[in-house]
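Progress report, Aim 2. The chain analyzed during this reporting quarter is listed below.
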Amino acid sequence: MRSVFMGVGCALVLAGASGCTSNYEEAEAATNELIGAMDDIAAAMEGVKDKETAKAAAPRIEASVDQMQASKKKLDGLKGTQAESDRLEKEYKPKMEEALARLQKAAPMAALMCGGEESFLNAMKKMETLK
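Predicted structure tokens for the chain:
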């Protein structure tokens, strides 16, 4: 589970570092998508109570991980000023940290409650691939 958090934390750091753009609205939108995907993963994990709910959560987690990757890719492609990057970080870093904290709280319980459900564990592994 620790590596899952490291992958998500990596996405957080990279989004903040890459978010500079003269197209500030694009960076804002991609950052909001990233935060939304993190919240979706946390919500899916919070709903895991047994093998059945873990199996139901797996596709939602995988789709959200894909969304995070796409949002991160958008952010990586944007260039801009340091002032814009600072503005983006000031506004969104607390929101991203909140979403990350929610994930860190939900993941251990979900891992315990999933009963070893294979598709859920695979979805969790997919989170580890976030870069």
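Helices lie at 2-18, 24-46, 51-76, 82-113, 118-128. The first helix runs from residue 2 to 18. These observations will guide the mutagenesis work planned for the next reporting period.
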